[in-house]
Amino acid sequence: SPSDPDLVARARAAKEKLGDKVFVLGHHYQRDEVIQFADVTGDSFKLARDAAARPQAEYIVFCGVHFMAESADILTSDDQKVVLPDLAAGCSMADMATAEQVAECWDVLTEAGIAEQVVPVSYMNSSADIKAFTGKHGGTICTSSNAKRALEWAFEQGEKVLFLPDQHLGRNTAVRDMGMSLEDCVVYNPHRPNGGLTAEELRAAKMILWRGHCSVHGRFSLDSVNDVRERIPGVNVLVHPECKHEVVAAADYVGSTEYIIKALEAAPAGSKWAIGTELNLVRRLANRFAPEGKEIVFLDKTVCFCSTMNRIDLPHLVWALESLAEGNLVNRIQVDKETEAFAKLALERMLALP
Ligand code: CIZ
Ligand code: SF4
What we know:
The protein is of the alpha/beta class.
């Protein structure tokens, strides 16, 4: 069983044996049984930075998903080895934009005569290949905390933005934060010829949104917002910007996981909150703040855990730590040199954003 005291003891022993050689990162969406062994917790960006700030740690055990481990590898030194305890922990959103599809999209933009006006902006939640494409074409990475600043910067470099791979974060940022209209946005569908768009539509658009979404956040609905308001009078609805535009438009507050945590820390006793983000985090926050008299519920009971985040469980973590303690480097995530160089360029543009 996941809370098996034997496994807990084994994880502790292996970690102790490794000492400073190992640094365990835990994403906010990880299971409690894994989070208890994390040296730091955070969102994908904070974790990648924290890994880089620990050069003495030879092994970075990344409890999160594949694209996050890639970003950690890109931002850490070559001597640091990033380990993902289960290689099947991918991200369905990141998988929605492949290198081939994005290269094809660039050809479509070139055919339409607009490629030189387009600046790619890619969400952190993308593969190293997509980050490299972004760097190569003069674009930047963004997170859900700095998407507005990234778009402002991009519109200083060019007239149009190709936003990858989360259409919801792109649309929400353009409309909520940048004063654009829904008509300024078009959706490029990689499964249709020319993205399902005419050259005229591409030329008229300001935001070209890649047709990707998060399979967790994308499932919160406007109904769930209306239902919770009826069920809990006075509730504050707080959602992540990966949610659909109609959900974000109906919410009281919108922000990244770090924003959500800070908002709940600052919330007064007696306040009520419905949160639209991953269930592991919402449950942990509900338990943490209940003693302070803050009532925190999950926005929609039909939405589940992120199944790939949940692949990292205590047995996988024990296996990874014990293997490392025995000198076996398992499940290393290593981005090739050329990809890394261009991806780093895009990440550095983000770090330089005002
Ligand atoms: O949806 C996710 O996976 C998020 C918000 C990741 C992250 O930490 O940026
Ligand atoms: Fe990917 Fe969504 Fe899971 Fe995050 S919560 S890892 S974006 S599928």
